[in-house]
Amino acid sequence: MDNNAWEFATLAIRAGHVRTAEGEHSEAIFPTSSFVFGSAAEAAARFGGSEPGNIYARFTNPTVRYFQERLAALEGGESCVATSSGMSAILAVMLGLLKAGDHVLCSRSVFGTTTLLLQNYIGKFGVEISFADLTDLADWEAGLQSNTRLLFAETPANPLTEVVSIRELAELAHRNGSLLVIDNCFCTPALQRPLELGADIVVHSATKYLDGQGRALGGAIVGDAERVGKDVYGVLRTGGVSMSPFNAWIFLKGLETLSLRMKAHCDNAMQLAHWLEAHPAIGQVFYPGLAAHPQHELARQQQSGFGGIVSFIVRGGQEAAWKVIDSTRMLSITANLGDAKSTITHPATTTHGRLSAEQKRQSGIADGLLRVSVGLENIQDIQRDLMQGLGEA
């Protein structure tokens, strides 16, 4: 049966796996640093690119290849490059596609470390960096320059779950001769497929929902065979920001249940968001599934679900927010997300803690803001755990 005829849930389980001569049912792990050639001529042909095959595990490994092919199939892309972390995926995109004199226009509403990577490191090498309001297409357009090489955005964004029209942003980028890169971490291809909406490249922190159980670090870039398959892959081959075979195997196992897990995360998150919306200690709730969310209709149109991240502002600022965190007994106090276990964090002092006060203000990171990655526990238990601190607040 042709893989192209398979539905999403089937691709997530079956795509990319080629059994070895041993006939294994689960994907094999290849924990080897290098591969042996049959002759000097074969070695030369593989290193030179005239013959396909494994060379060195920094950039060719069967287990990693299984994961790359499966995720590419789920995102609808031609090529995928797997990396050591989500941040290394973004780094590989920037190193592979940019040169001195280029300009990057990035959303202000991104993970704090993404902002710092662009400003403090990519910007050191002659690349100009500027920022735009994620949801304001006019601001994006005003920020475009003749040398703008790419636009970068998260949607939904971390941590306020703002949403931008990927289709309209892609059209804006392409009219300017620029590329659009979308971080699809919050939705995964189970809920949103940016390439189908016009984006050129998708990046992931596989550490999050693609794994789903907080077991391993990894990242991925999906796109076309030229930019991703050659330009970005070249960074991996030369720079070595590589995914380990064992981690790739973990992510393969995670992808098998991705569709089911994302539906369950969405269901729990929706219930929690409504519950928080009615709580007197809460000033504002940020979740695209709520009718009050400014981009609710847009999220409903371009996503098949609203995701598992719910952020909210506790009345009373940082003191009240920390009291909520410290009063929990079940939720994990950690900055990771996308886990089966619910997690809670205070963005202003963790994920966005290295940003300046002005950057936090521009990004809407309030002192009383909390972000919950809603897990797969019983929703009533999640609510009861939060109630301990909210009752005091």
From TrEMBL:
Enumerate the GO terms in the molecular function aspect.
Answer: carbon-sulfur lyase activity; pyridoxal phosphate binding; transferase activity, transferring alkyl or aryl (other than methyl) groups
Cofactor(s) listed? pyridoxal 5'-phosphate
Pfam families for the chain = Cys_Met_Meta_PP
Q: What class of enzyme is it?
A: transferase
Please indicate which superkingdom the organism of origin belongs to: Bacteria
Q: Which UniProt keywords apply?
A: Amino-acid biosynthesis, Methionine biosynthesis, Pyridoxal phosphate, Transferase
Q: Which Gene3D superfamilies match?
A: Aspartate Aminotransferase, domain 1, Type I PLP-dependent aspartate aminotransferase-like (Major domain)
Q: Which residues carry this modification: N6-(pyridoxal phosphate)lysine?
A: K208
Taken from the UniProt entry, a GO cellular component term is: cytoplasm
Query: Which GO terms are recorded in the biological process aspect for this UniProt protein?
Result: 'de novo' L-methionine biosynthetic process; homocysteine biosynthetic process; transsulfuration
Its UniProt pathway annotation is: Amino-acid biosynthesis; L-methionine biosynthesis via de novo pathway; L-homocysteine from O-succinyl-L-homoserine: step 1/1
Spell out the NCBIfam families in the cross-references.
Answer: O_suc_HS_sulf (TIGR01325), PRK08133.1 (NF006003)
Q: PANTHER family under this entry? A: CYSTATHIONINE GAMMA-LYASE, TRANS-SULFURATION ENZYME FAMILY MEMBER
Q: What does this protein do?
A: Catalyzes the formation of L-homocysteine from O-succinyl-L-homoserine (OSHS) and hydrogen sulfide.
Q: Which family does it belong to?
A: Belongs to the trans-sulfuration enzymes family. MetZ subfamily.
Q: How does this polypeptide assemble, per the annotation?
A: Homotetramer.
Question: This chain belongs to which protein, by name?
Answer: O-succinylhomoserine sulfhydrylase
- Supply the source organism for this entry: Thiothrix nivea (strain ATCC 35100 / DSM 5205 / JP2)
Phylogenetic classification of the source organism: Bacteria, Pseudomonadati, Pseudomonadota, Gammaproteobacteria, Thiotrichales
